[in-house]
Amino acid sequence: SQTIHQWPATLVQPVGSPLSLECTVEGTSNPNLYWYRQAAGRGLQLLFYSVGIGQISSEVPQNLSASRPQDRQFILSSKKLLLSDSGFYLCAWSVSGGNGYTFGSGTRLTVV
Amino acid sequence: AQSVSQHNHHVILSEAASLELGCNYSYGGTVNLFWYVQYPGQHLQLLLKYFSGDPLVKGIKGFEAEFIKSKFSFNLRKPSVQWSDTAEYFCAVNAPLGFQKLVFGTGTRLLVSP
Questions:
Q1: Closest in B9, B43, B51 to A99, CB measured
Q2: Residue A75 backbone dihedrals phi, psi, to 5 degrees
Q3: Chain A residues near residue B46 by CB distance under 8 angstroms
Q4: Which residues of B touch A37 (CB under 8 A)?
């Protein structure tokens, strides 16, 4: 069966520290992968999406970056976190054509 | 750029009241449309989706939505809400032949009082 793993579930990091959030997908190949951020009052904002290994599209200018080193692995990173990076980060995948999406359980990041 | 508008940011209803949440999108081509729900402390769940065919789509828990192409709308409805419907509701759109990324609206927080 197809599953998506996202970790950690919660994270508290000081300002200026690095970040690495990992998302892996099982049971499918060549998925489209997405990173979303949910901030209070702003809904779900698409940050990055990837249609293949090494192919990353950035949706909004920000302090974050994404990488896809393997087909079913999607990593969200930052070299130096800002307070404004706090939020709830969701990973998702879909098949080509985008007829269905599966979301991970999310990571709540608090930058202090 | 593609966008989704949910004009109701907060809705408060009493149990048994009828619900309609508005959703409008901006894209001239063929679209897939979705409504997701996030109950307090839980993951995002799919309520219903429209790809093609009958523009009136029925989803889980008594929800339905109607796609009106001429109005670029996909409003969510439920004839009689329950306290357990308290949640945040998100409309989303993608284009199977165009942008495959899922674009969300800002969400509507629904509070149903018993």
A1: B51
A2: -120, 135
A3: 101
A4: none
Tokens encoding B113: 């009082």
Domains and CATH numbers, chain B: 3-113 (2.60.40.10)
Nearest chain B residue to A59 by CA distance is B101
- Tens-level pLDDT at each residue, chain A (112 residues): 668 889 888 999 999 999 999 999 998 888 999 999 987 766 788 899 998 999 999 887 778 999 999 999 999 999 999 999 999 999 999 876 556 788 888 999 999 9
Measuring CA to CA, which residue among B11, B43, B37, B39 is closest to residue B92? B37
Name the fold adopted by A3-111: Immunoglobulin-like (2.60.40)
Inter-residue contact B80 to B13 (CB < 8 Å): no
Amino acid at B36: Y
- What residues form DSSP beta bridges with A36? A46, A90
Number of A–B residue contacts, CB under 8 Å = 53
Are A46 and B100 within 8 A, CB to CB? no
Hey, are the CB atoms on B101 and A46 less than 8 Å from each other? yes
User: Which residues of A make CB contacts under 8 Å with B?
Assistant: 32, 34, 36, 41-46, 49, 51, 57, 59, 90, 92, 94, 96-101, 103, 105-106
Per-domain boundaries in chain A? 3-111
